[in-house]
Amino acid sequence: MAIRVTSDVVPAAALAPVAVVPKYQRAGLGSKMIEYGIQLCRERHVAGIIVLGDPRYYERFGFSQALVSALKSPFAGPHWMGLELGAGALDVAGVVEYPAAFDVVR
Fold first, then answer.
1. What residues does 12 pair with on adjacent strands?
2. Residues 81, 64 contacting (CB under 8 angstroms)
3. How many domains does the chain have?
4. Backbone angles phi, psi at 2, to 5 degrees
5. 3-state secondary structure the chain
6. Who's near 48: CB < 8 A, 6+ residues apart?
7. pTM of the predicted model, to two decimals?
8. What does the pLDDT look like over 26-70, one tens digit per residue?
9. 5 pLDDT band (50/70/90 cuts)?
10. How far apart are CA 94 and CA 52, in angstroms?
11. Using CA atoms, how far apart are residues 71 and 15, in angstroms rounded to an integer?
12. How far apart are CA 86 and CA 88, in angstroms?
């Protein structure tokens, strides 16, 4: 995934929806998956992560709706959030370009 800013690109990742089978919920498995995803993105020098999900859940990992307010996306709305892995990485105006796997809304 990338964020197109005028003629430049910000390397970013989309944290696809995370789900845990109901009988295994509330055991920390979802949190561990998200934390591992964030760790992998840091290791791969991704500037920011975008997620679509429940703000009450994802905010505890540092995701914020405010960080993506200047970005355009077909998923934009109250459940669309970002996490900066580099200072100011999402402090840009641009268009989020998703890979073909996310191409269900066009």
1. 48
2. yes
3. 1
4. -145, 160
5. CEEEECCEEEEEEEECCCCCCHHHCCCCHHHHHHHHHHHHHHHCCCCEEEEECCHHHHHHHCCECHHHCCEECCCCCCCEEEEECCCCCCCCCEEEECCHHHCCCC
6. 3, 10, 12, 13, 67, 82, 83, 84, 85, 86, 89, 90
7. 0.84
8. 999 999 999 999 999 999 999 999 999 999 999 999 999 999 999
9. low
10. 18
11. 16
12. 6
Residue type, 88: G
**pLDDT by residue (tens digit) across 58-84?**
999 999 999 999 998 888 899 999 999
What distance in Å separates the CA atoms of residue 43 and residue 65, rounded to the nearest whole number?
24
Residue 60 domain boundaries:
2-102
Relative to beta strand 8-15, strand 48-52 is parallel
Q: What CATH number does residue 12 fall under?
A: 3.40.630.30
